[in-house]
Write a structure and sequence with these properties.
Layout: E1 2-4, E2 12-15, E3 18-29, E4 35-41, E5 51-53, E6 67-69, H1 74-78, E7 81-82, H2 89-100, H3 128-136, E8 142-144, H4 145-148, E9 152-155, E10 158-169, E11 175-181, E12 190-194, E13 198-202, E14 207-210, H5 214-218
Parallel strand pairs: 2-6, 9-14
Antiparallel strand pairs: 1-10, 2-3, 3-4, 3-8, 4-5, 5-7, 9-10, 10-11, 11-12, 13-14
Length: 234
């Protein structure tokens, strides 16, 4: 079933021996639109560090209880990978900038792995070959849900709204559509844009580029949140 991706933020992780933490973010690939990791806060003993859990490790989400059952014990969840081991693009960039004492966006990587305008601000003391080597070390497609929501949406012929959410299949964990809020552009509704039509995600300038015209997006299917509290139709 399709769900808003943001629905799962703050879901608790229910292990057989108790609550093992809660979801703080979700990481996905902007080349194949698959979810890669759920970022989990597993308790104060981690001193603020978060953990990564694969979607395959989670059971079917309990929409009414806002929880994911897992077969892992609390100890096994706590032994999961640290979020520092696989970071989304904006974290990768910030970490690299901090290492060189630079400020401002360094470069941007789009959905096809291409680099934005080729500028490396604050890194004039590093050779082009070194810059390229640094860039190659990053995963250019890993994005964080919490960071991209709110990005402007650029159509082929101008702005059309902002990214409010994604729709994801809660069985395959595939992102199918972006939910675009167009009300500030006079259209007054949330429209769905197929994820396959998103051609790039710009970290530096905080926008996504869609391979559709404004008119095509405006005429796309609208989205209205279902009433999950309503009893199922028999």
């Amino acid at each position: 079933m399709q769900r808003r991706l943001s629905t799962f933020k703050n879901y608790t992780i229910e292990a057989p021996d108790g609550k093992a933490g809660y979801v703080t973010d979700i990481l996905f690939q902007d080349d194949d639109w698959k979810l890669r990791w759920f970022v989990i806060n597993a308790g104060s003993w981690l001193f603020g560090r978060d953990l990564l859990i694969r979607p395959a490790a989670l059971g079917r989400p309990d929409i009414r209880e806002h929880a994911f059952p897992v077969a892992l014990t609390i100890a096994e969840v706590q032994a999961s990978r640290s979020s520092n081991s696989d970071q989304p693009v904006f974290k990768q960039m910030e970490q690299n900038l901090n290492a060189y004492g630079a400020s401002g966006p360094m470069w941007d990587i789009g959905a096809f792995g291409g680099y934005g305008n080729g500028s490396f601000n604050g890194m004039s003391n590093i050779t082009g070959q070194q810059q390229y080597a640094e860039a190659q070390a990053f995963d250019p497609h890993l994005r964080g849900m919490a960071q991209v929501f709110g990005y402007a949406v650029h159509a082929l012929d101008g702005d059309i709204g902002h990214l409010e959410d994604f729709l994801v299949d809660d069985e395959t964990w595939q992102i199918d559509h972006a939910v675009v809020d167009t009300k500030n552009w006079g259209f007054g509704k949330h429209v769905l844009v197929p994820a396959s039509e998103i051609k790039s995600v710009n970290w530096g300038e905080q926008y996504i580029r869609v391979d559709q015209t404004r008119y095509a997006i405006k005429c796309g299917p609208s989205w209205q949140e279902p009433d999950w509290a309503a009893p199922p139709v028999l």
